[in-house]
Each structure stands twice: as structure tokens, then as C-alpha cells.
């Protein structure tokens, strides 16, 4: 295993799904249900059984719109406000209208959702305004349940293949993708009528404070490959300056997790044990207050549970130490942190792109269509804001159905064989050198500069220095990177995606000359929100081989927001008692 | 530029007495999202070849004999 072999195979399918985490399996499943005769290929860099953000399951739904608790209108309004108004509501409304049907479908797959003594869904309040959090008592079984459905529907699963570039036809229509085997370096050209990108967040962008490249908040496999592929195919990417930054357990770098512990009575405090934020929901405005408190004499920040009854804490532990990031319990044990006795030290995460939590993603409409004909995107990498796991499932379903419908009525586009040759040369260049710089050093350096120059508070001169450093690393990558086996080859391609994302993060952040989304885009020289000039999406795309940015108007709201409601998320700080 | 080998203590530990990779089992290698585990040609047992661990635990959870333990990587312990 891992030896570099030569090989190129062409595969023809109708619908190609890239990424087998959360959105991808649902997209593939729905495409196959829509068109049972179609060939649906699900391509995954790891193994669909245990890949992506929910490799070990999930503790609950963070954004369930359950009849009786919330309406699609309320949810759309809340997310519009939470995202500082920069929100095309149609995809959010579509999500909110369909997600309950998806919950019922997941329930049918054997994934259980918590019910109260009356048999109703036991929805909790964590957001600033409405109630949308629904615990999943057997959330550790999510991936198994999905996998069973994929097998039943005969979706063609290709594990350990990493897509490296999308292929387009002469008229710009999607034609497929090129992939490389992560254990043999053999190439696969996948021709497809429609392609759905579900490659997750760009979670390996900033360097965690621990200095461990793999100690990221997001699954460390999520190196932003989808963002990079969409960019190189000419797709529009939206609001990349609206970074993902999360409040996490310091060093462990996983969620604390206020969404689980909050409804039981836990909350975020400063070192004096006092609350300082009204609401633990992860918004940019909340993160700004979190950052302010960390920097103040009252930091660090903690999650406080030690006022709760021991049995209550036992219930919280039973969730937190079983699903999503189960090694959390081991981390606390090493440090001698018992939730009953001590508060849990928190910190802020490295930066990343992720619409699942913020709004930085490949631009999509309410049918999950990108701006490239035949190319779709869903999940953490698509631009529907604050999307979370249920958004990935629901928008994955939307993408799968639409892509199958379109594929049924079109022919395969022809790709240019020269594109494949060029891509093989790009991918393999580092394998042809005898010595040089290994991918892990290039990655470390790029990510350290992301921290040094791109982390908020954002400063123009620093971001420009960052761009200069990234250009130097790019040159090293292209002229001196050395790769010795197929595993390192995967890492080298990921490092290239990371560098692409770092350049996009700097470019998008420099473009928007205002501050918005709290900490996510806090520009020191432009400290105010400027609705006159910047109430718009920023759209980044590759044109003529160069990175460009432009403004795009926010689509007219379908759910109106009163002037008085717009600032609800700006009021995060607990007011001082007189 | 010659390449050096810098030692690191790896977080994933395999109990070789319990590991049945020599009987053909590859479960931990198959499920690892970061693909860091391999079967040793020398011992026939699973081991962590690449120190690139997200301490996520599928290898430990899915191991049929309980041979795998995921520790927290030292840098963040």
C-alpha cells in the first residue's frame, strides 16, 4: 500500500456526488430514489462508513423547524438576523420548509429524536429568538443508518478517491471530475451529467493554538478541497470573509458543548464565574463578545456546569462522551477536570470557511445550484448560512433530486483531454523530485501565516503581508515540494487546497471595507457596519485565471424583517446591573 | 534538501496480543478518516504509521477485539 503507481481509468455515470460525509450520502440517496435507473457514484476521500463531520455521529439537530415549535417564516427571520441581513432567503426558507420531512425520513432510517412525555419532539431553546434544538438519543448511529440506505439503493461507492479538479465542457457545462486514489495514486476520470460537491468545510485553514496540524475543530480531512475545486471551475463563492470561528474547549478544540449542556442549565462565564453573554448560540456577534472577554482582565472564558446536580451532569456526560467528539471525556480525565467540580476552560478556534456555522460558501440558489451549469453544492461548503447537519441533509436532498431531474434530460458533456493531462502533471509533479520540501512543512507554514495575518481583528497591512507570504509558499509548492508515497500525495493536494483557501480568505476580507458579522469580519480600519455600501454579498471567482471580487445584491426578502428586529443579535452582552 | 525523521509519540496504540490483523482483519485501517493506520509487514499487526490523528475514535469503536486505544495527542493533552 501507498506505493505510487501509474494508471488512468475512465468511468461514466449520470450523477457524481463528491464527498460522503453528511450532505453527500443524502444527495446520492435522493438522486437514486428519483432516478432508480441512473448510475449514481458517491466518491469519498476516506470511507463513507466513518467520514466527515459526523464520523462519530451527532448529539442533536441544532436547527430543527418542528411544527408547533417554530415556523419556516420564524426560522428564516432568525437566520437572516443572525447573519446580519446578508442572506438570500429563498434557500433558507426552502430548507426550513423541508427539514421536518427530512427529520421524519431520518427517523424512518432508525435515527431517533428525543420526545417528551406527551410523545412530542422535545425541542430546546438555544438561539436568541426561537426554539430549534432537538437532541438525538442514538446519534452515534447516524452514519451506519445512512450507509444501510446507500447499500439498499445500490449507490456506487468509491472510497479512498480524492477528487482534485472538476471537468467542464466547451460551453462551460459540468462534464465530471478527476480523482486520484489516496493509496496508489492511480487516476480516475469520472464523466457525469451533473456533479454535486459535498466536500465539507475548509476546516484545516487556521492552525490550532496547540500547533498540531490535525487538532482542528472540523474533521481534519476537511481541507477545503470543495472550495478549491469550485473556484478553479469558475464557480462563484459567497461571503468568504464571514469566517467560521467557534468557542471551544481550549486545547482539545472540540465543542464544549453549550447546545447540549445549555438546555440543562450550563452557561458560558468569565473567570469570575459570571455570565457575560445573553445567548450561547454561535453567531459572529456572540464570538465578538467572547473575544472581548478573553482579551479583558476577566478572561479566560469557561463553560460552567458545576452548579448543576451530579445526576444532571451525568446525563450531559452520557451525551458528550459518546457522540460527535467522544474523546472529550478522555481529555478532561487527563487534566483532572470533573464537570462537577471545575469549570471548563474555553478558547476560540482557528479560522475556517463553513456555511454550516457561518456563511462562507460556494454560492448556491434554492435548488443547490452553483453558477456553473450542472454543478451543485450542499452541506458545510454551500452558501446557505447557519446550516448545520440538518441543513446538509436537507439541502443534500434538494441537490440530489434536482441534479437527478436535470441529468435525466441532458447528455454527457465532452471534456478536453488536455485538461486531464495537465491535471495529472500538476498532481504528480512533486512525486518526480528526489528531494525538496515535504507537504506537511508547506502546510504548517501556510497555516501559521493564516493565523498571523488573517485572523480577526483584520488589519489591511497584515492581510497584504499574508498575501505576499502565501505567494512565496505557492512558489515553493510548485517548484520544490517533494512527495514520496500516495498518502503524502493526498496531503500535498490538501495543502494546495489550503493555500487556495488562504488566498481566497485574504482576498475576500480585503474586498469588504466594513465590519460585519461580529468577530467573523471585524476590520480594524472600518469598524462600523456600512449598509449603504455593503448590504450585499461579496462574490469571489476566478476570471481569466485571476481571482476577482464583485458585489451581488441580497435578493429581496420573502419574509420581511422589521427595522426594530434587525439588531436583535447585536445585543449579546449582559447589561450591567445598576 | 535531505529529509530528516523527527520522532513523535503517536496517539493511537494497538495491543498486539489482541489485534487480529494477521488473520486478515483491516477494520481500523478501513475506517480511519485520515487514513493513518497500516498493517505492519514485520509483525502483521496494525499500527499508526502517520501522526495525523483527529482523535475521533472510529478505529477504537469499530475494532472487533478491543485492541485499539485512542489517546489524546501529546501536544494538546
TrEMBL record, chain A:
Keyword RNA-binding: no
Swiss-Prot/TrEMBL keywords: Flavoprotein, Oxidoreductase
A Gene Ontology biological process term: anaerobic respiration
Any GO MF annotation of the entry: electron transfer activity
InterPro entries (UniProt xref): FAD-dep_OxRdtase_2_FAD-bd, FAD/NAD-bd_sf, Fum_R/Succ_DH_flav-like_C_sf, Fum_Rdtase/Succ_DH_flav-like_C, SdhA/FrdA/AprA
Domain Fumarate reductase/succinate dehydrogenase flavoprotein-like C-terminal stretches: 450-563
GO cellular component: plasma membrane
Domain FAD-dependent oxidoreductase 2 FAD-binding: 14-385
Source species, domain of life: Bacteria
PANTHER family hit by this protein: BLR3196 PROTEIN, SUCCINATE DEHYDROGENASE 2 FLAVOPROTEIN SUBUNIT
Database matches in NCBIfam families: PRK08275.1
The protein's name: Succinate dehydrogenase/fumarate reductase flavoprotein subunit
Species of the source: Bradyrhizobium macuxiense
From TrEMBL, chain B:
PROSITE patterns from the UniProt entry: 4FE4S_FER_1, 4FE4S_FER_2
SUPFAM superfamilies attached to this UniProt entry: 4Fe-4S ferredoxins
Domain of life where this protein originates: Bacteria
A molecular-function term among this protein's GO annotations: metal ion binding
Signal peptide feature range: none
4Fe-4S ferredoxin-type domain: residues covered: 10-42, 44-73
Keyword Phosphoprotein: no
Cited Pfam families: Fer4_7 (PF12838)
Keyword line: Iron, Iron-sulfur, Metal-binding
Identification of the protein by name: 4Fe-4S dicluster protein
Lineage summary: Bacteria, Pseudomonadati, Pseudomonadota, Alphaproteobacteria, Hyphomicrobiales
Amino acid at each position: 500500500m501507498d506505493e505510487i503507481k501509474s494508471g488512468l481509468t475512465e468511468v461514466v455515470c449520470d450523477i457524481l456526488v463528491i464527498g460522503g460525509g453528511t450532505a453527500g450520502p443524502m444527495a446520492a440517496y435522493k438522486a437514486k430514489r428519483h432516478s432508480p435507473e441512473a448510475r449514481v457514484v458517491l466518491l469519498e476521500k476516506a470511507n463513507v462508513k466513518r467520514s466527515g463531520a459526523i464520523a462519530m455521529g451527532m448529539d442533536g439537530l441544532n436547527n430543527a423547524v418542528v411544527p408547533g415549535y417554530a415556523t419556516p417564516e420564524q426560522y428564516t427571520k432568525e437566520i437572516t438576523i443572525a447573519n446580519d441581513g446578508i442572506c438570500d432567503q429563498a434557500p433558507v426558507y426552502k430548507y426550513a420548509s423541508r427539514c421536518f420531512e427530512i427529520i421524519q425520513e431520518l427517523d424512518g432510517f432508525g435515527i431517533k429524536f428525543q420526545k417528551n412525555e406527551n410523545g412530542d419532539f422535545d425541542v430546546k431553546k438555544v438561539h436568541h429568538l426561537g426554539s430549534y434544538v432537538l437532541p438525538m438519543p442514538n446519534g452515534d448511529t447516524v452514519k451506519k443508518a445512512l450507509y444501510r440506505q446507500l447499500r439498499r439503493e445500490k449507490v456506487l461507492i468509491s472510497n479512498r478517491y480524492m477528487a482534485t479538479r472538476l471537468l467542464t465542457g466547451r460551453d462551460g457545462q459540468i462534464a465530471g471530475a478527476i480523482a486520484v486514489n489516496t493509496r496508489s495514486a492511480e487516476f480516475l476520470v469520472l464523466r457525469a451529467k451533473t456533479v454535486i460537491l459535498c466536500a465539507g468545510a475548509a476546516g484545516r485553514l487556521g492552525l490550532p493554538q496547540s500547533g498540531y496540524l490535525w487538532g482542528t475543530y472540523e474533521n481534519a480531512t476537511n481541507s477545503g478541497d470543495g472550495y478549491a475545486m469550485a473556484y478553479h471551475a469558475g464557480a462563484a463563492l459567497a461571503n468568504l470573509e464571514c469566517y467560521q470561528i467557534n468557542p471551544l474547549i481550549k486545547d482539545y478544540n472540540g465543542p464544549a458543548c453549550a447546545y447540549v449542556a445549555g438546555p440543562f442549565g450550563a452557561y458560558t462565564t468569565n473567570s469570575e464565574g459570571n455570565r457575560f453573554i445573553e445567548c450561547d448560540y454561535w453567531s459572529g456577534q456572540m464570538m465578538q463578545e467572547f473575544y472581548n472577554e478573553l482579551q479583558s482582565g476577566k478572561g479566560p472564558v469557561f463553560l460552567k456546569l458545576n452548579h448543576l446536580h451530579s445526576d444532571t451532569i451525568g446525563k450531559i456526560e452520557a451525551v458528550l462522551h459518546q457522540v460527535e467528539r467522544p474523546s472529550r471525556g478522555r481529555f478532561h480525565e487527563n487534566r483532572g477536570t470533573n464537570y462537577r467540580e471545575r469549570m471548563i476552560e474555553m478558547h476560540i478556534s482557528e479560522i475556517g470557511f463553513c456555511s454550516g456555522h457561518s456563511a462562507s460558501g460556494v454560492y448556491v440558489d434554492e435548488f443547490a445550484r452553483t453558477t456553473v451549469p450542472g454543478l451543485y453544492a450542499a452541506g458545510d461548503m454551500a452558501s446557505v448560512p447557519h446550516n448545520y447537519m440538518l441543513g446538509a441533509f436537507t439541502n443534500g436532498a434538494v441537490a440530489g433530486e434536482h441534479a437527478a431531474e436535470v441529468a435525466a434530460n441532458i447528455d454527457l458533456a465532452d471534456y478536453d483531454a488536455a485538461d486531464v493531462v495537465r491535471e495529472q502533471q500538476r498532481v504528480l509533479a512533486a512525486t518526480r523530485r528526489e528531494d525538496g520540501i515535504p507537504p506537511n512543512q508547506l502546510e504548517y507554514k501556510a497555516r501559521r501565516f493564516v493565523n498571523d495575518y488573517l485572523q480577526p481583528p483584520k488589519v489591511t497591512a497584515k492581510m497584504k503581508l499574508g498575501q505576499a507570504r502565501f505567494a512565496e509558499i505557492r512558489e515553493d509548492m510548485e517548484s520544490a515540494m517533494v512527495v514520496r508515497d500516495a498518502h503524502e500525495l493526498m496531503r500535498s493536494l490538501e495543502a494546495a487546497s489550503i493555500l487556495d483557501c488562504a488566498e481566497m480568505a485574504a482576498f475576500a476580507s480585503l474586498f469588504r471595507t466594513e465590519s460585519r458579522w461580529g468577530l467573523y469580519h471585524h476590520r480594524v480600519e472600518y469598524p462600523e457596519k456600512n449598509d449603504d455600501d455593503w448590504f450585499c454579498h461579496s462574490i469571489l471567482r476566478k476570471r481569466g485565471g485571476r481571482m476577482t471580487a464583485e458585489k451581488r445584491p441580497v435578493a429581496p426578502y420573502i419574509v420581511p424583517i422589521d427595522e426594530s428586529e434587525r439588531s436583535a443579535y447585536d445585543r449579546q452582552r449582559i447589561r450591567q446591573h445598576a | 534538501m535531505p529529509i530528516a525523521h523527527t520522532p513523535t509519540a503517536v496517539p493511537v496504540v494497538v495491543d498486539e496480543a489482541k489485534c487480529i490483523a494477521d488473520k486478515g482483519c483491516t477494520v481500523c485501517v478501513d475506517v480511519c478518516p485520515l487514513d493513518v493506520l497500516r498493517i505492519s509487514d514485520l509483525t502483521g499487526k496494525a499500527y499508526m504509521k502517520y501522526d495525523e490523528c483527529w482523535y475521533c475514535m472510529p478505529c477504537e469503536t469499530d475494532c472487533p477485539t478491543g485492541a485499539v486505544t485512542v489517546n489524546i495527542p501529546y501536544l494538546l493533552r
